[in-house]
From TrEMBL, chain A:
Superkingdom of the organism of origin: Eukaryota
Residue span of region Disordered: 241-373
SUPFAM superfamilies on file: VPS9 domain
Basic and acidic residues bias: start-end ranges: 320-343, 359-369
Annotated InterPro entries: VPS9 (IPR003123), Vps9-like (IPR045046), VPS9_dom_sf (IPR037191)
Organism of origin: Anaeramoeba flamelloides
Name of protein: VPS9 domain-containing protein
Ranges where the VPS9 domain occurs: 522-664
Compositionally biased region (Polar residues): 241-251
Residue spans of biased composition, Low complexity class: 257-271, 285-299
TrEMBL record, chain B:
Protein name: Ras-related protein rab-21
SUPFAM superfamilies linked: P-loop containing nucleoside triphosphate hydrolases (SSF52540)
Organism: Anaeramoeba flamelloides
Keyword annotations from UniProtKB, A to Z: Nucleotide-binding
Superkingdom classification of source: Eukaryota
Keyword Transferase in annotation: no
Key word Nucleotide-binding present: yes
Length: 696, 205
C-alpha cells in the first residue's frame, strides 16, 4: 500500500519529479483516484477567487490552468480572464465570492490596476505574480520581425500539484491507519473508496449536512492532504513490464511452461516449443511428426470439439514430457556454457581493473604534481564546468512588448534595459540576431546622426554589462565550496562572465554595428579599399615618407602579418590589442635590424604605420576606427594601446588624404568632361520644362 | 589611484622628448632632434605618502598632424606646454595650442608652461615676464627648465603630480543613482533641429 498526497510545487520541481515518475503508469492510477467532488473540496481550501480549470497529467500531476488574454486599446489597457472547460474533470466553481477574497489578492489586484493607470516605466511591467500557490499570470506582445509588427500573445499559467510519496517517518506514524486500509484492500476495497461513494451519493442528493460531516472525517484522516490508495498488484505489474528485457531466457521458458499447462493447446504454444527444443535429429523428426499430426487434428476439431479434446490432451501430455526432458538437457548444457563464460569474464574484468588502476594512479600522480606546483587550474576548470552560463539565465523570461513600446516613445530606462537583457541572454543564440535587427532598426530611426548612435549604443552596452553581472552574482550561491577564498572566486567569475558576455551577447551587436557603419560609409570605404589594393604592390617605404635610416630590410613583414588579424577581429578591445602588439613589433624590428632608434619619433612612427596599413590590406578602416574610438573602454584608450591607436588614426588620415582627395578630383574632372561632351536631347529638355511648369 | 594622462605639447624641436626622458629614464641625447623613443611612458611619483602614476604621451610636432591633436588630448588630466627660450615663435605658437586645447577639453585640465634650454642664457630671446603673464592668463604655472643639465625637471614634475592629485580629488563625482539612471536614457535629437529639418523638407518648390 502506498499513500499519495497533493502538494503545491514550482515548475522546476515538477520537471525533476516528472522524470522520476515516468515509470509509473497512470492509466491505472486514474481509476484509483477518488471522485472529482472530493478533489474539489480539497482544492477549495486554498481559496481561489475565480473559476479555474483542473487537469490531471499523464504523470499524476494535477494542473490548474488559467488562460489570460489582454487587449491593449489606444486609451488604456484592459485585461480579460478566461476559463475553459476541461473534458476530464469538468469545470469547478469555487466557493469564494469576490468580497471574500483574501487581503493578499486584493492588494495585488490594486497594484495591478495602478500599474496600468500610470504612464512610464511601470506601466508595462511584464509580469505580476499572484501569491497564491506560485501562480503567475502574464501579458505578452511579441515582436514579429517578419511582419515588423507586434503580435498579441496569450499565455497559460499553471498551478501545479504533485502526487508524491510520504516520507518514512510519516508512514511510521500512521501504521495503524494503514493496517485498517490493508484489511479493506484485501477484501477488494478501501475505506476511502467507500467514503467516496457515500460522498458522491450524498452530493447528488444535496444533503449538505452529511457532506460537511464527511468532509470533516476525511480531513481528520490526514490533516489537509488528500489520500489516494494504490494497490500493490498494479505497481508490480508495471514493474514487471518495464523489466522484461532484463530477465534471462530461463525465466521466460519457465513462464512459457506455466502458461502451456494452463492453456488448452493453441498454436502459439507449439511455436514456442519448437524454438526451445534441442537440435538432435531424432527428436526433431518426432516433433515435426507430432506437429503435423496436431495441425491436421486442429483443422478437423473445429466441427467436433468434444471428440477431439481428448485426443489433443493426450498429444499435449506427450509433448510436455518431451519438452521437460529437452529442457533438463538444455539447462545442463547451458550451465556449462555459462560457467565457461563466467571464467572468461572474470579474466577480462581482472585485466580491465588492472589497467584502470594503473591509469588512475597515473592521473592521481599528475594531479598531485599540479597541486604541488601551486597551479589552481583544476579548481578553475571545476568552476567553469559549474558555471553553465546559459542554464542559469534560462530561468528568466523575456517580454519584448515593453521594449518595443519604449522605443516608440524614445525613452530607455533601467527597467527596459532589464527586459532587453532578459531578451537577449535568455533566448537561444539564433533568436538573438532577430532581436538585434530590431534593436538597430529602432536606433537608426531615432539616431540619424552617427554621434548619437554611438552614445546610445555605449549607454546600452554599459547597462547590459552591469545588469548581466548583477544578475549573475545572484546565482553565486549555486557554486560548490572550493578551497579558494570568496573574493578569488568572485573575481574569477566576474572575469568569466565578462568574457562570455562579450562573446555571446555583445559580439553580435558589434557585428551589426559594423555592418551598419559600412552601409553609411559605403562610397568612401570602397574608394579607400580600392586605392589600397591597387597601390599596395608598388608602394615603397620612401613613398610612405619613412626616413632612409629607418628603412627596414625585411620590409616590416612581421608587423604586417600581425596587423592582418584586424580583418577577423570584431570586438574593439581585441582590435586595440592587435594594434598595440603591432606597435611593439615595430619597435622590436627596429632593435633587431639595428636601425637608428633615435629617429623613431612620433612623426616617423606614423609614417611606418601608414606603410604597414597599406601593405596589410585591412578592409573598412574608417568604420573600424569609429567603433574603436567610440566603444572601446576608456581605460584602454588612456594607456599604451590608446597611444598606438592614435598613431594609427593619423596613418588612416594620411591614407584618406592620398586616395580620397585624388579620386574625388579625378571623378569631378571626368564628370565635367562628360557633361561638356554630352549632347542633351531636345525632347528631354522639353519634357523637363513642362514638368517644372506643372509643379509650379 | 588610476593612471593619469599627461600630454606634452609644443612646437617642433622645442625639446619635449628630452624633457620627459630626463625625468623618466635619466637619459639625455645631445644630438637628439625631435626624436621620441619610446613615445609613451609611465612613471610613479610620490606626493607626500600617496603615489600617482603619470602616463606621459608625446605628440607629433609636425604641423601636418596638428589636426589629429584632439585624439591625443582626450581624457587627459594635464598638459605640459613646452617652449624654447631661445625662440620667440615657440612661445607665440603656445597661444594657438592653448586655444585648441580648451576647445577640445575645456577648462578642466592642469596646465604647465615650461621654458626649455635654460642653460643657454646668452641666447635667450623670451623674457620671463612674458611667459609668466601668459601663465597667469591661462591659470597655469611657469617653470624654467633645462633638459641638458636636469635643472628644475624633477621639481616641475613633482609640482605637476601634486596639482593632478588635487584636481582628481576635487573632481571626483560621487555615484548617484539618479545620475546612473540618466545615463541609460536614450539620447534624442533636439526638437529644434527636427523642426528645422521639417521646414527644409517642406520648403521645396
Amino acid at each position: 500500500m502506498k499513500l499519495f498526497y497533493f502538494q503545491k510545487c514550482s515548475q522546476r520541481k515538477l520537471q525533476k519529479v516528472r522524470l522520476k515518475r515516468i515509470s509509473l503508469q497512470v492509466d491505472n492510477f486514474f481509476q484509483e483516484l477518488p471522485s472529482i467532488h472530493l478533489l474539489v473540496t480539497q482544492i477549495n481550501k486554498w481559496g481561489f477567487s475565480k473559476k479555474r480549470l483542473l487537469r490531471l497529467n499523464r504523470y499524476g500531476i494535477l494542473n490548474i490552468l488559467l488562460t489570460q488574454k489582454q487587449t491593449r486599446t489606444k486609451s488604456k489597457a484592459q485585461t480579460k480572464l478566461r476559463t475553459k472547460e476541461d473534458l476530464l474533470l469538468g469545470q469547478i466553481n469555487f466557493s469564494f465570492s469576490y468580497d471574500q477574497i483574501s487581503q493578499v489578492i486584493l492588494l495585488d489586484s490594486q497594484t495591478f490596476q495602478l500599474n496600468y493607470t500610470n504612464r512610464g516605466s511601470t506601466i508595462y511591467r511584464h509580469d505580476y505574480a499572484i501569491p497564491l500557490a506560485q501562480e503567475i499570470t502574464c501579458r505578452c506582445e511579441v515582436w514579429n520581425s517578419r511582419y515588423m509588427s507586434l503580435v498579441q500573445f496569450t499565455k497559460t499559467t499553471v498551478l501545479s500539484l504533485l502526487f508524491t510519496n510520504y516520507s518514512q517517518n510519516q508512514q511510521n506514524q500512521k501504521i495503524e491507519t494503514n493496517k485498517n486500509k490493508n484489511e479493506y484492500s484485501k477484501k477488494g476495497g478501501s475505506i476511502i473508496n467507500k467514503k467516496e461513494n457515500k460522498l458522491q451519493a450524498e452530493i447528488m442528493n444535496e444533503n449538505t449536512e452529511n457532506v460537511t460531516k464527511m468532509k470533516k472525517d476525511f480531513s481528520s484522516l490526514n490533516d489537509q492532504w488528500f489520500e489516494v490508495s494504490v494497490l500493490e498488484k498494479n505497481v508490480e505489474e508495471i514493474l514487471s513490464k518495464s523489466n522484461t528485457k532484463q530477465r534471462t531466457q530461463i525465466s521466460t521458458k519457465k513462464k512459457n511452461l506455466q502458461t502451456t499447462t494452463n492453456c488448452n493447446g493453441n498454436g502459439n504454444g507449439n511455436k514456442n516449443r519448437n524454438r526451445i527444443a534441442p537440435k538432435t535429429k531424432n527428436e526433431n523428426k518426432q516433433n515435426q511428426n507430432q506437429n503435423s499430426q496436431q495441425k491436421t487434428e486442429n483443422s478437423q476439431d473445429q466441427d467436433n470439439k468434444t471428440k477431439n479434446e481428448k485426443l489433443s490432451n493426450s498429444v499435449q501430455d506427450t509433448n510436455l514430457k518431451n519438452e521437460k526432458k529437452n529442457f533438463q538437457e538444455e539447462t545442463e548444457g547451458e550451465k556449462k556454457k555459462t560457467e565457461n563464460f563466467k571464467i572468461r569474464k572474470e579474466k577480462k574484468n581482472q585485466i580491465r581493473n588492472q589497467q584502470e588502476n594503473s591509469n588512475q594512479e597515473k592521473k592521481n600522480q599528475e594531479l598531485k604534481n599540479k597541486h604541488c606546483k601551486g597551479n589552481n587550474l583544476l579548481n578553475k576548470k571545476n568552476i567553469e564546468s559549474n558555471l553553465n552560463f546559459e542554464r542559469h539565465f534560462k530561468i528568466f523570461k523575456f517580454f519584448s512588448c515593453t521594449y518595443a513600446i519604449a522605443f516608440e516613445r524614445g525613452s530607455i530606462n533601467g527597467f527596459m534595459i532589464k527586459s532587453i537583457v532578459d531578451q537577449i541572454i535568455f533566448n537561444q543564440q539564433n533568436q538573438i540576431y532577430d532581436k538585434i535587427d530590431y534593436f538597430f532598426a529602432n536606433f537608426s530611426k531615432i539616431c540619424s546622426q552617427k554621434d548619437l548612435l554611438f552614445k546610445n549604443i555605449n549607454n546600452f552596452l554599459r547597462a547590459l554589462r552591469i545588469k548581466i553581472l548583477l544578475k549573475y552574482e545572484k546565482t553565486l550561491n549555486i557554486l560548490p565550496t572550493i578551497d579558494h577564498t570568496q573574493e578569488e572566486i568572485i573575481k574569477f567569475i566576474r572575469n568569466v562572465v565578462e568574457k562570455r558576455t562579450e562573446r555571446v551577447v555583445i559580439l553580435p551587436i558589434y557585428k551589426k554595428l559594423f555592418d551598419f557603419l559600412r552601409k553609411i560609409n559605403k562610397k568612401e570605404q570602397a574608394l579607400i579599399d580600392m586605392g589600397i589594393i591597387n597601390n599596395s604592390k608598388h608602394f615603397s617605404q620612401r613613398g610612405a615618407g619613412i626616413v632612409q635610416e629607418l628603412i627596414s630590410v625585411s620590409r616590416w613583414k612581421i608587423p604586417i602579418c600581425h596587423l592582418k588579424k584586424l580583418n577577423y577581429a570584431i570586438l574593439p578591445s581585441e582590435q586595440l590589442k592587435i594594434i598595440s602588439e603591432t606597435g611593439d613589433l615595430i619597435i622590436e624590428t627596429v632593435k633587431d635590424e639595428g636601425l637608428n632608434r633615435k629617429l623613431l619619433n612620433a612623426d616617423n612612427f606614423i609614417y611606418i604605420f601608414y606603410y604597414i596599413l597599406i601593405k596589410s590590406h585591412v578592409s573598412s578602416l574608417e568604420s573600424r576606427i569609429n567603433i574603436i574610438e567610440n566603444l572601446s573602454p576608456e581605460k584602454q584608450l588612456n594607456v599604451k594601446d590608446g597611444f598606438y591607436f592614435t598613431s594609427v588614426c593619423a596613418a588612416v588620415s594620411l591614407i584618406k588624404e592620398q586616395f580620397l582627395v585624388k579620386k574625388d578630383i579625378v571623378q569631378n574632372s571626368n564628370n565635367i568632361k562628360s557633361d561638356i561632351n554630352h549632347k542633351y536631347p531636345e525632347q528631354k529638355l522639353k519634357q523637363d520644362k513642362d514638368g517644372k511648369k506643372e509643379k509650379r | 589611484m588610476k593612471k593619469q594622462k599627461v600630454v606634452l605639447l609644443g612646437k617642433g624641436r622645442v625639446g619635449k622628448t628630452s624633457i620627459f626622458k630626463r625625468f623618466l629614464q635619466n637619459e639625455f641625447h645631445d644630438n637628439e632632434v625631435t626624436t621620441i623613443q619610446p613615445q609613451y611612458l609611465e612613471k610613479q611619483v610620490k606626493v607626500n605618502t600617496e603615489k600617482v602614476t603619470l602616463s606621459i604621451w608625446d605628440t607629433a610636432g609636425q604641423e601636418r598632424f596638428r589636426g589629429l591633436n584632439p585624439l591625443f588630448y582626450r581624457n587627459s588630466k594635464a598638459a605640459i606646454m613646452v617652449y624654447d627660450i631661445t625662440d620667440q615663435e615657440s612661445l607665440d605658437s603656445l597661444e594657438d595650442w592653448l586655444a585648441e586645447l580648451k576647445n577640445q577639453v575645456g577648462h578642466k585640465i592642469v596646465l604647465m608652461i615650461v621654458g626649455n634650454k635654460s642653460d643657454l642664457k646668452k641666447k635667450r630671446q623670451v623674457s620671463i615676464e612674458d611667459a609668466e603673464n601668459l601663465a597667469k592668463k591661462v591659470g597655469a604655472q611657469h617653470f624654467c627648465v633645462s633638459a641638458k643639465t636636469g635643472e628644475n625637471i624633477d621639481e616641475m614634475f613633482h609640482e605637476l603630480a601634486k596639482r593632478v592629485m588635487k584636481f582628481v580629488k576635487e573632481n571626483k563625482t560621487p555615484l548617484n543613482t539618479t545620475k546612473s539612471r540618466r545615463n541609460f536614457a536614450l539620447v534624442n535629437e533636439d526638437v529644434e533641429t527636427k523642426k528645422k529639418k521639417k521646414k527644409n523638407n517642406d520648403g521645396c518648390c
